[in-house]
């Protein structure tokens, strides 16, 4: 919204239309020879046109007339032609109708389709831009070498918000490179050219047809603004020594290259690019490739940088920046230069060194893993103060928002460092999955995002093996997280059809990233790592510098399996997982039948859905690679792989007795939930209480997550997960604690306004107390960095402190208050970095207003981005409604709070039980402002909507949400229907399950056996 409808856009289109015919034919000539040709043809065309006009008038032709006359007719299609609705039924905006056409000529009207017609393909772009940082505009000339595929009179490409001046087309001769001055070469007369804003397209209509197999050159000159909005070629600023400095940088993914130059802006139109940037010499400029030559103008002293030609790539990976940043650099063993560019003060403080260091190691890691070299001679990492996403993987010039790449090791927590590391690992992976091999179309964006997200964990394990990311953290942060979303009936398949440009943003959601990663991990485990790696290697080599669809991947992976004699049709299996929404719950039980002996098990599958009423008539089925092990108090069997293809199947297991438990989805490598009969749950719980180590750490976390979610959806009695976490005092590992705390916070949101809340919080504190006291608080040694410490221990300690403080452990509160008091009185922050967020938040919520003011002051004076963020979030922990209101208003109306943090402030106020109503009310009141500011960035938008609605759980709040959706929620994307389903689920849980839940807590069974 708001994006395309701003008046400058309309104005620019109008300006573009007023061009004279003569102008539109003349290119900026390169040679005198060409210039003469142009004029000869002009004169000839002019004469012919007059003649035609005379004949036309004299004969008074009644049939449809092709206006070939001179004068202002050319290039005013918007005003000429019919304005009626003819043929525009499928258009969803009125703007398209401005381009009414004469029926005879453009019956086909290929620009009315949302996709490019494909009659011509770009081969190479010569793009020359002059960038004016004083008034934030730029002007450009692009010369596109085109190959004609099918004969056509139309060249249809993308352009949005560009003021097009001149358009010309020349024939270059045959595809074999016949020169232009030979027969068949030379200027092609342009009949007319016009924008088609409804599809963000630009249309060039020629007099004569372009011929297949021939090469042409389209030249367009244009002007545009360097916008404030973070899309296309945009600007942002920062302060250096109290002076405001500007920079301009691009963000083209997914469909914004068309805002910077006319281009074939779909991923499949790969081409090479030669970019030239001209600008004031006080700035430097960067692009995907290194500068090949540079010159200074004698006239105005401006610098012109010619960048080397890129390899074949998609338009959305082209990037450039004009800034006065400085850099630090390093080199890989293979000779690739890596530079990190940032604000000069950040560079001099060394804040970029960490990212530079890991990037160097990562390039080596990926080259080894994929067995494909990094393609470019250099890789620049650019840290910008403002960016719509965490980062963007432009080939050779990846752009990061500062918070995701600059690290001040002294004050950063391990979680900040981990997040930053993973963003870098993700973007570097894209240099292969994305830049080198690009999904054919946006429906399969998960082909790049799922891989990059999966490799975040694999690559981080390479950097820090102790973090154990892929085997552990992946479960809670990816698998458990996305199964929450994908268990809703408002979910969607991971491959989702998308046609309209405006819908493309919506495919970049957590289903694409997280489900993509989870499916890839499942597949990697089914195949085994060596074959998986072999398949990926074949896939990258076969499609490098080109595009691929999911079937291309499946076929390479299947081939890898066949090469080892393993006959699996991966495409057939994976289609079930990618073309269907959701995932199954697999129920395993020992066989009860009289006829079959007990070493048989029955396995059934059904679509897991939180809503009990929506799952009645669901018929989805999957090919489930189910691993199962059996065990008892002393040992567990090795896992067996069973393929479950039907609704219910019987499989043989080894010998079992009454004390044998079954465990499914070993190490949680599969993307599904597992349920058991109650007797088996009881045996598993017993096992966890007596000796948890027999079950792997991944499965312990998995059992917790499955149990809580199965109970929430009504597949299991409410007491089962509560009883299960009764073993936590025995749990020494971080991951199961983390899984439990995530599930408990989910419940906390449902329960914290109920009368019996204390029953719940006391039960949680009871589980936490012993381990919390045993682990204690971290000491603040001189080596605070996570690199040296054991990540697992630090994270467990942090998790326990967080649980203890947030559920009301008095000792935890006293400790936090003591830390804050010490900070205020000594003005020395002696709080260990890893738990600062917890201590700040606890302090602000328990202590008086002066502490809030103190933190507010520190927020302003701090320069370290990681510090600023947690100080800001701490301010939302106050229970003083006046202060929370003040914070909300300051966030939105002043520039005291960075723009990308405003949404987090609102969400965090919502997470505070004292702030919930306030955040919900504030969100509705300010929706228009918020939506116009963030609505276009769907990721932000859906984060905000879920953040302020997920805790709503009464009938009254449900009605408020429905009212809001009816009155204001039009066009907000899928986030609102999803929010509605979640809140309906919350209300339903209260209605159906709360009583049983509290009943269990009032009278927990005396033993684990319940
Ligand atoms: Zn990505």
UniProtKB/TrEMBL annotation:
Any one cellular-component term (Gene Ontology): extracellular space
- Region (Disordered) spans which residues? 72-117
Q: Does the keyword RNA-binding apply?
A: no
> Which EC class heads this enzyme's classification?
hydrolase
Q: How does it sit in the membrane?
A: Single-pass type II membrane protein
Q: Which reaction does it catalyse?
A: Release of the N-terminal pyroglutamyl group from pGlu-|-His-Xaa tripeptides and pGlu-|-His-Xaa-Gly tetrapeptides
Cofactor binding summary note: Binds 1 zinc ion per subunit.
Q: What is its EC number?
A: 3.4.19.6
Ranges for domain Peptidase M1 membrane alanine aminopeptidase come to 354-577
Q: Source organism's superkingdom?
A: Eukaryota
From its record, what is one biological process in GO terms?
Answer: proteolysis
Keyword Oxidoreductase applies: no
Q: Where is the Aminopeptidase N-like N-terminal domain?
A: 122-317
Query: What the protein does?
Result: Specific inactivation of TRH after its release.
What's this protein's name? Thyrotropin-releasing hormone-degrading ectoenzyme
Q: Which organism is it from?
A: Parambassis ranga
């Amino acid at each position: 919204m708001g994006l395309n409808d701003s008046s400058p856009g309309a104005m620019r289109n109008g300006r573009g239309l007023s061009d004279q015919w003569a102008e539109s034919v003349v290119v900026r000539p390169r040679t005198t020879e060409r210039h003469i040709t142009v004029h000869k043809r002009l004169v000839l065309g002019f004469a012919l046109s007059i003649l035609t006009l005379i004949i036309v008038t004299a004969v008074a032709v009644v049939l449809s007339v092709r206006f070939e006359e001179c004068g202002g007719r050319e290039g005013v299609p918007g005003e000429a032609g019919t304005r009626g609705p003819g043929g525009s039924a499928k258009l969803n905006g009125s703007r398209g109708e401005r381009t009414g056409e004469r029926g005879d000529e453009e019956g086909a009207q290929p620009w009315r389709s949302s996709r490019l017609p494909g009659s011509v393909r770009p081969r190479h772009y010569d793009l020359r831009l002059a960038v004016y940082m004083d008034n934030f505009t730029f002007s450009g000339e692009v010369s596109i070498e085109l190959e004609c595929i099918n004969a056509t009179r139309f060249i249809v490409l993308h352009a949005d918000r560009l003021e097009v001046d001149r358009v010309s087309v020349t024939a270059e001769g045959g595809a074999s490179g016949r020169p232009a001055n030979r027969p068949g070469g030379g200027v092609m007369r342009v009949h007319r050219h016009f924008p088609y804003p409804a599809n963000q397209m630009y249309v060039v209509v020629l007099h004569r047809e372009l011929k297949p197999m021939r090469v042409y050159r389209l030249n367009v000159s244009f002007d545009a603004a360097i916008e404030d909005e973070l899309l296309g070629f945009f600007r942002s600023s920062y302060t250096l020594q109290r002076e405001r400095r500007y920079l301009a940088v691009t963000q083209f993914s997914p469909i914004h290259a068309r805002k910077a130059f006319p281009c074939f802006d779909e991923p499949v139109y790969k081409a090479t690019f030669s970019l030239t940037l001209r600008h004031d010499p006080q700035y430097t400029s960067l692009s995907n490739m290194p500068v090949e030559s540079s010159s200074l103008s004698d006239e105005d002293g401006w610098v012109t940088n010619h960048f080397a030609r890129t390899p074949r790539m998609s338009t959305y990976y082209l990037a450039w920046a004009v800034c006065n940043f400085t850099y630090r650099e390093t080199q890989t063993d293979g000779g690739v230069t890596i530079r990190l560019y940032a604000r000069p003060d950040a560079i001099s403080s060394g804040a970029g060194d960490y990212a530079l260091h890991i990037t160097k190691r990562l390039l080596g890691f990926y080259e080894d893993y994929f067995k494909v070299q990094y393609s470019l001679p250099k890789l620049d990492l650019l840290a910008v103060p403002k960016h719509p996403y965490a980062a963007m993987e432009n080939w050779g010039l990846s752009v990061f928002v500062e918070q995701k790449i600059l690290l001040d090791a002294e004050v950063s927590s391990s979680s900040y460092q981990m997040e930053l590391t993973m963003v870098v690992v993700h973007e570097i992976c894209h240099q292969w999955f994305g830049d080198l091999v690009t999904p054919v179309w946006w429906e399969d964006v998960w082909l790049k995002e799922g891989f990059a997200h999966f490799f975040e964990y694999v690559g981080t394990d390479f950097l820090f093996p102790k973090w154990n990311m892929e085997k552990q953290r992946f479960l809670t942060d990816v698998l458990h997280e996305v199964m929450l979303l994908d268990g809703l009936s408002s979910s969607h398949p991971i491959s989702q059809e998308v046609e309209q440009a405006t819908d493309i943003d919506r495919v970049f959601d957590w289903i694409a990233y997280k489900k993509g990663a989870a499916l890839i991990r499942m597949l990697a485990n089914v195949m085994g790592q060596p074959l998986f790696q072999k398949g990926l290697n074949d896939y990258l080599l076969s499609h490098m510098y080109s595009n691929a669809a999911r079937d291309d991947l499946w076929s390479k992976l299947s081939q890898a399996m066949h090469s080892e004699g393993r006959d699996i049709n991966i495409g057939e299996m994976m289609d079930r997982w990618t073309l269907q929404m959701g995932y199954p719950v697999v129920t395993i039980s020992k066989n009860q039948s009289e006829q079959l002996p007990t070493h048989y098990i029955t396995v059934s599958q059904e679509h897991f859905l939180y809503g009990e009423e929506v799952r009645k008539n669901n018929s989805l089925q999957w090919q489930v690679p189910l691993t199962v092990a059996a065990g008892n108090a002393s040992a567990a069997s090795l896992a067996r792989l069973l393929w479950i293809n039907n609704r219910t199947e019987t499989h043989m297991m080894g010998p079992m007795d009454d004390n044998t438990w079954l465990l499914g989805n070993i190490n949680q490598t599969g993307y599904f939930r597992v349920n058991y009969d109650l007797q088996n749950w009881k045996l598993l719980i017993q096992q966890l209480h007596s000796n948890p180590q027999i079950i792997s750490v991944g499965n312990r976390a998995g059992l917790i997550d499955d149990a809580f979610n199965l109970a929430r959806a009504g597949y299991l009695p409410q007491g089962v997960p509560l009883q299960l976490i009764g073993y936590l005092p025995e749990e020494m590992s971080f991951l199961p604690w983390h899984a439990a705390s995530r599930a408990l916070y989910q419940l906390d949101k449902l329960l914290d306004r109920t009368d019996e809340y204390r029953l719940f919080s006391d039960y949680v504190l009871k589980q936490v107390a012993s381990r919390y006291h045993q682990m204690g608080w971290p000491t603040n040694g001189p080596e605070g960095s996570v690199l040296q410490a054991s990540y697992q221990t630090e994270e467990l300690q942090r998790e326990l402190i967080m649980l203890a403080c947030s559920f009301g452990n008095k000792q935890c509160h006293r400790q936090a208050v003591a830390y804050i008091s010490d900070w205020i009185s000594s003005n020395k922050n002696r709080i260990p970095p890893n738990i600062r967020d917890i201590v700040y938040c606890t302090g602000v919520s328990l202590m008086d207003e002066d502490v809030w003011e103190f933190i507010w002051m520190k927020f302003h004076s701090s320069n370290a981005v990681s510090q600023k963020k947690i100080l800001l979030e701490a301010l939302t922990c106050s229970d003083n409604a006046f202060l929370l209101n003040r914070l909300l208003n300051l966030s939105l109306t002043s520039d005291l709070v960075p723009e990308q943090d405003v949404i987090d402030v609102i969400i965090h106020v919502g997470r505070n039980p004292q702030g919930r109503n306030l955040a919900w009310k504030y969100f509705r009141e300010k929706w228009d402002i918020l939506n116009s500011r963030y609505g276009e960035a769907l990721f932000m938008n859906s984060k905000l909507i879920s953040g302020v609605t997920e805790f709503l759980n009464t009938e009254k709040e449900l009605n408020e949400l429905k009212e809001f959706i009816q009155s204001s929620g039009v066009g907000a994307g899928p986030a609102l229907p999803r929010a509605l389903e979640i809140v309906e689920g919350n209300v339903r849980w209260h209605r159906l399950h709360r009583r049983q839940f509290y009943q269990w807590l009032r009278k927990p069974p005396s033993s684990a056996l319940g």
